[in-house]
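Service request form, structural biology core

Requester: graduate student, group of Dr. S.
Request type: structure prediction, single chain
Budget code: on file
Notes: please return the result as structure tokens.

Sequence provided:
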Amino acid sequence: METLKMTDRWLQSLRPADTRQEFADSLSPGLRLRVGSRSMAWSVLVRGPEGRKRIALGKYPAMGLKEARQRAADAADEARSTQPKGAPEHDHRVGTVRDLFSFVIGQMRAEKVATADEYENYLIKREDSALNVIGLDDEGNDIPANSVTPDDVTRWLRKFHEAGALTGHPRAYLSAAFSRGLSADYDPTNPNPNIRFNLTANPVTHVGGKMKGKARDRTLSMQELIDFWHGYHGRGVSPQMKLTFRLIISMGGVRISEIVRSQKSWYQERPLGRWIALPKTKQSPARPSFDQDGGSCL
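Core staff response, request fulfilled:
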């Protein structure tokens, strides 16, 4: 099911479908439009004394979007009014995009996720952050997280593409944020239980585009690799940088950020010299060890 901000123009573009499809309106909680092979029908999901139920509202186009939204709001009000006396009342506020990103960053910091700062940079801090581009309306006001559509996501990622940057990382960060938001409403560790995001789908899921860059035209030649390993024989390269070059080569396939965060326990003194013993990972259960001169031992 796709969640989007329904418009009359969008509704007019719909056509009957061979397999049933369902759409949710981001501006009207619970409002659904089912598209079948013969008709399109409005309904609303409400929570009453006996739990959640679906109420049929009418067929489209006999019932337009404005009327369907009004009927959905009336049905929700009626369901709330029939709650038995003494039943617990929930005063939940619909979470904004800012609320969602703040929740996600806070959760990641609590989990000690190493990339939390990178997420915060792309989602909140940058001038062209997701919050500034898709999280505010034309007047600068915060908008509900569940009103973000795939079109909004595409608009944000296009800015990176037009600037000559790849869209893979920002897309991944935004997708992960909404994935966390999908389960946040029913997360007992959520520090703000009075905020509900009411997300029914991840708006990033179906946004495509080129995510990876092209492979380089060539690899380093053996002589270039030797020069790099020996720090260009001291030509304008400090001893510290020479060791850094060797570390990067020795830990081939490991990101620079991971090398920077490498732990002291990885570096071991052995009879034949100093070694780097890489920890096990899910992808590589047996990691090699490297000596300071580049030899490896599996």
